[in-house]
Write a structure and sequence with these properties.
- This protein has about 160 residues and is mainly α.
- It has a domain of about 80 residues.
- It contains six helices and four strands.
- The strands form two sheets. Strands 1-4 form a two-stranded antiparallel sheet. The protein has a two-stranded antiparallel sheet with strand order 2-3.
- Strand 2 and strand 3 form a beta hairpin.
């Protein structure tokens, strides 16, 4: 191989190295942005959890019958978040997940899975999810809640093991 051909080969290798170095830097910046977005999502979830745990005090003077069976005495009942209130938060989470590169379907699945997991681990969240499912049959929910939120709630109920309304 002549010296001129070797020089061209070396020059080409340097160009490739420069190109790949730029690609690596772009990927590092992309990863850093994803980390930042994930941190923001965690903060939103923490805020949602704090809002969810606000509680009210209700005192029953007579037996109360329901899903839990017969409940008597003073009971602390956590106030439930309405589907209309949760709708905005769910839509915000979906938007952020899509901005992080998930498809709409993937974002819906992620949010539904998180809701179902939370419901299985937290009685208040479970009550909210069940109430949201009941709200889907309500005429007011037909106009105040987007189709995507209805889809997420139905999927979350299904993942949590409840019949879909």
């Amino acid at each position: 191989m002549c010296m001129e051909a070797k020089d061209k080969e070396i020059e080409l290798l340097f160009q490739q190295k420069e190109f790949y170095s730029k690609e690596i830097e772009l990927k590092r910046e992309e990863i850093e942005q994803m980390r930042k977005n994930n941190t923001e999502l965690i903060e939103i979830i923490k805020t949602m959890k704090q809002e969810e745990t606000s509680k009210g005090n209700m005192i029953f003077q007579a037996p109360v019958y329901g899903v839990a069976g017969n409940v008597e005495g003073n009971q602390i009942i956590y106030t439930s978040q309405s589907l209309a209130d949760a709708s905005t938060e769910i839509e915000n989470l979906l938007t952020q997940l899509q901005n992080n590169g998930l498809t709409q379907e993937q974002a819906e699945g992620k949010v539904a899975s998180d809701l179902a997991t939370n419901a299985n681990n937290n009685p208040t969240a479970l009550g909210n999810l069940v109430n949201w499912g009941k709200s889907l049959g309500n005429k007011a929910a037909e106009t105040s809640v987007s189709e995507v939120v209805k889809t997420v709630v139905k999927l979350a109920l299904q993942l949590a093991g409840f019949p879909i309304p």
